[in-house]
From TrEMBL:
This is TILB protein. It comes from Erythrocercus mccallii. Gene3D superfamilies: Ribonuclease Inhibitor. Coiled coil: none annotated. Keywords: Leucine-rich repeat, Repeat. The lineage of its organism: Eukaryota, Metazoa, Chordata, Craniata, Vertebrata.
Amino acid sequence: FELPSDSFKYLGWCDVEELGVRGNQLRCPRVREGPSEEELFFRKEEHTLKKRKQVTDTEKWEKRLQENWENCAELNLSFQDLGDLYQVENFKRILRRLIRVEKLWLVDNSLTDLSAIRLPRCRELNVNKNHFTSFKQLPKIPQIQHLSLAENNITTLSGISDFRHTPLESLILKRNPCEFQERYRQLVFSSLPNLKMLDGIPKLPEDCSPPDVRFFYRMCTIL
């Protein structure tokens, strides 16, 4: 049975009539796009389609001003359920507009590569529970201070030195394969001398010892 709200379930907040809420007023918005018209017909949900009307350039501009992602300083875009490519592209379109965001949460979005995204003012980024396999796949974050990458699939510490020239103070890599690397903490702190905390544990005296050069010539195979 259809619920009274069914006709609104794929409706973007900007499309709701007589609504003046701006993007920077939202804290946990759902920004993924709904299914295409063809997909809705396939699902037999064409009743959810809005009546088509000619959209003027003025209306397009008003919608862009209403989104105003450029003014967001703190935003939570977690749990977006990005199931289709067009939803991922729309998601990245919004990320590219976050030029002033300082705190950003992107938890559990099945993200794999944001290397084309630049977040020039971001100081705190949480991308836990995604599918990153390398530090090279992260967005450009020159002002980052707190970075959380727990529960991804980062296998090696290759590329971590790219953060050497950032003000990064704390880093979380819990439940990544690289956490099981021999002399893991020493390797991280030697690559990031300004780092103060790793995986919630402050820098310890034993973390400052240089990594064993012989480490790079050994390999352990677990069968």
